DNA sequence: GAACATTTGTCCGTATGTATC
DNA sequence: CGATACATACGGACAAATGTT
């Protein structure tokens, strides 16, 4: 593979070795972007690593800095890198692939990605169901529901935060068990509820609000994916309804029919 | 139904008729928010309509303007209304439910929602497949692919914009037929390709970029849902791969396993 | 472009009820 | 019981954005 300049600093005479060919019908910036993308995909630069400064990269590719910046802009647009004035340009961590199907559980998703899952319990309380919760759980308005607020992390990095509601009668002390184990899946299993499946997943997105910025450690203006879900038991009765906000920069939700 | 003030202007003496009860154990702002939400749900105020100004609503409910603003903030958080300084507070249109399954087609989705679908063709050209397109379509890099850029609208409101790639050999003149009919589904049918299904849908989100702001008529800082998809023919060969940006304020993607 | 009215957004401060230690 | 912290509610003033003249 035609790697990008790996000897920018070491060998001043090699500036032209990686120069991009001109007159090929492909613009210079596109060629550069594709080379850098291939390098990142190949692991030439690791996530979190800082790229050489723009001037060095530009001279290594034999182009003007503006041309190089056009290539970096394309990569930033694609979400592969992130530039900060005064700090440098960094390779972003690839988003966590988050498969969603009838029976996916958070802990399995994260474990499959080679990361360590953790559900950080924030708050639980019993409250009467408002109109929305009652509709989604198919219970009379005002019935007691258990409301659990939590944050999900992978390797200590917050992935999502949100609120889930359970019919309180069906899940006695679920909150206590969850708080102890850190896994909702296991807490439900303790109650003998293992066989539930996703009935519907609804998705939208919006800029993060103040709470999400804090809980997910994301910058102002970044997006969250808002995911609403209904899980049902084998008999078709809704078990939980919830709404979670995902740090959009860190996950890619994957649906396979 | 205990409606919210409908005679704010008409009858100056009715200020207290809709006043919220105090000392009930439910905060004033929550009572107000629930009343307004019920009114919007009941169609008392139509999508796009402007609510009375804050001062009027406050006096109608018999509370301070700050208390009313707390209620409006809750509704805005829930996505029911949107306020702009100097203009007023408006009821937002409910998002278009956009079901995604193995065989959903854009035209069917929008028609089912009682709206009129339209794919506005922007540009088509044949180009050699780059690394990403080649991988997704499972063809050798450099093979000719047809790249189609388009915008999808419902009732004249832009819903999504994006780019789709087809193996050029499989779809001769697809671009011309699409440009003529405005429906990709029909254009493919003309070529005898009717039976394809979604193999995978990947989703993330980010703030809209300049192009999306223009093509989708959305404000700076708003979010887009970025949806990548692979459609395959019955024999399993990829037919199209594409990446679309949805105006997150206008759609809710719905997945049913 | 300037002046103006309208409307939302933000800040100051104060008082009160409620839950907690 | 008091001390304390917090959310709720109110009052006033001004800034910022928008639309109109």
TrEMBL record, chains A, B:
The keyword Membrane does not apply. It comes from the Bacteria. InterPro entries: Bact_HTH_transcr_reg (IPR050679), Chorismate_lyase_/UTRA_dom_sf (IPR028978), CP_lyase_PhnF (IPR012702), Tscrpt_reg_HTH_GntR (IPR000524), UTRA (IPR011663), WH-like_DNA-bd_sf (IPR036388), WH_DNA-bd_sf (IPR036390). Residues 26-94 form the HTH gntR-type domain. Keywords: DNA-binding, Transcription, Transcription regulation. NCBIfam families: C_P_lyase_phnF. This is GntR family phosphonate transport system transcriptional regulator. It comes from Xanthobacter agilis. The lineage of its organism: Bacteria, Pseudomonadati, Pseudomonadota, Alphaproteobacteria, Hyphomicrobiales.
């Amino acid at each position: 593979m035609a790697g990008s300049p790996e000897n920018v600093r070491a060998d001043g005479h090699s500036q032209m070795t990686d120069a991009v060919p001109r007159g090929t019908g492909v613009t210079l910036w596109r060629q550069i972007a594709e080379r850098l993308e291939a390098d990142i995909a190949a692991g030439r630069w690791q996530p979190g690593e800082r790229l050489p400064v723009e001037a060095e990269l530009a001279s290594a590719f034999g182009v003007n800095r503006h041309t190089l910046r056009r290539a970096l802009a394309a990569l930033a647009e694609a979400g592969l890198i992130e530039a900060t004035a005064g700090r440098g340009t960094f390779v972003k961590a690839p988003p966590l692939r988050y498969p969603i199907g009838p029976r996916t559980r958070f802990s399995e998703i994260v474990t499959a990605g080679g990361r360590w899952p953790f559900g950080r319990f924030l708050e639980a309380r019993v409250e009467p169901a408002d109109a929305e919760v009652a509709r989604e759980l198919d219970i009379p308005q005002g019935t007691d529901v258990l409301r659990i607020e939590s944050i999900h992390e992978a390797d200590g990095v917050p992935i999502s935060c949100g609120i889930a509601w359970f019919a309180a009668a069906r899940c006695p002390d679920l909150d206590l068990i969850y708080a102890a184990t850190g896994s909702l899946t296991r807490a439900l299993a303790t109650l003998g509820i293992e066989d539930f499946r996703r009935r519907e997943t609804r998705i939208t997105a919006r800029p993060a609000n103040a709470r999400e910025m804090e809980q997910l450690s994301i910058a102002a203006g970044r997006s969250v994916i808002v995911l609403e879900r209904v899980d049902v038991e084998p008999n078709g009765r809704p078990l939980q309804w919830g709404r979670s906000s995902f740090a959009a920069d860190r996950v890619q939700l994957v649906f396979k029919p």
